[in-house]
Design a protein that fits this description.
mainly alpha; 3 helices; elongated
């Protein structure tokens, strides 16, 4: 395996774990406080975290172009941030 691809795999997996932990912590905070904004925050983080990892897999395993991968990743990040904004706006 190419060292650069191996490094990318390690970073993507680390991002998946860290994003999952932060999403879980936000959901647990929502569960304790029932502040709706925290629920949206947790969901938005989960969308961003899972989306970026899935786009990386789609690019490397599915053979998508770099430009398409970047486009999909940007769309997913925008969707995650939109979920967070909706949650903040509603609270």
């Amino acid at each position: 395996m190419d060292p650069l691809v191996a490094s990318l795999l390690v970073v993507k997996l680390t991002a998946l774990v860290l994003g999952g932990v932060v999403s879980l912590m936000a959901y647990r905070a929502y569960d304790r406080t029932r502040i709706a904004g925290l629920q949206y925050f947790a969901l938005g983080l989960a969308v961003i975290t899972l989306g970026t990892v899935l786009v990386g897999a789609f690019h490397h395993l599915g053979g998508a172009s770099i430009t398409l991968g970047m486009l999909l990743e940007s769309v997913i990040i925008c969707a995650g941030f939109a979920v967070m904004i909706v949650g903040l706006y509603r609270t």
